Amino acid sequence: MRITNSMLATNYLNNMRRNLNNMSQVQNQLASGKEIQRGSENPRVAVRSMQLNSEIDANNQFNTNIESTTNWLDTTDTALGEANNIIKRINTLMIKAGNGAYSEDEISAINDEVKEKVSELTSVLNTSFDGNFIFGGTKSSSKPVTQDANGKICYADKNGNVLNVTTDPTGKIYDQIKASLKTEISDGIVIDYNKTATDVLEFKNNSGVSVNAADRLSDIISCLNVASGVTTTAITLSDGSTVNNSGDALSRINGDLLGYCTDISLNISKLRSNVGAMQNRMESSQKINEDQTYNMTSILSENEDIDFTEKTMEYSVMQTVYTASLQTSAKVLTNTILDYI
Length: 341
Hints:
341 residues, mainly alpha, CATH 1.20.1330.10, two-stranded antiparallel ribbon, 9 helices, 10 strands
């Protein structure tokens, strides 16, 4: 078969074009640091990379959730610590008020401080974090509690008014206040992480007796009013019992009301302990999350990143071949039939 000069030129140009395309691909790899630029270049590598990137993105979101939850729990722990200090102070004041040597004026001063502590507890239960009230459940955009005209702690509606049958006839807002907040910290692992105002104010003590902290704190103030002479008539407490005089009031303060105050403090301590356990879990989960992200990132790098040393050598070889091809073609393709005669 006769090999013409035109055939040599065509074959040469085809081979040179192929070589230039290969050089261009290696140049792109060196510029981007990635094995492929388009999925069509290597579908297996492309699919694996997309899967790993998707898993890494999900893990990053889990890590964000964990960090946000940890900050929320830190705020909750601090607030519960403050609440417990308030209750312990009220407990101390109740013991002082029961001292028979205290005058009505001194008991009145104690009563004033107890009222301030109850107001302070209300403020603690309205603690907010990042624009959300941490004890408000899913009703996190408005304060969960307020105080009525008598200074008693009450649940609040969305406008800050006392929550009752009139303002919440279906109980929907109350259900929102006691609702749990959930977050996903790993694939398929969803946890409840918040404590609510109802957790603090409504609970069962170690004897299984239901305790309403708001009612009991109100009873303490009412008895102190009687013991200090501010109230001179008989009063009815939240449990339906009657206090007729100062002696009855001090007896109740030193008796079951002091016990209920201790129960409230123990309940807050339990809630804080639970929060502490959750904080430890978040710390552990974050470490696991970071390890998983590191491992997947390492696998992703092995899957799609190039070996720069290898690719640099490969490019140098291609460049040498390309230069040699140009030099050879300059000698061969210029020949005519006269050169062979």
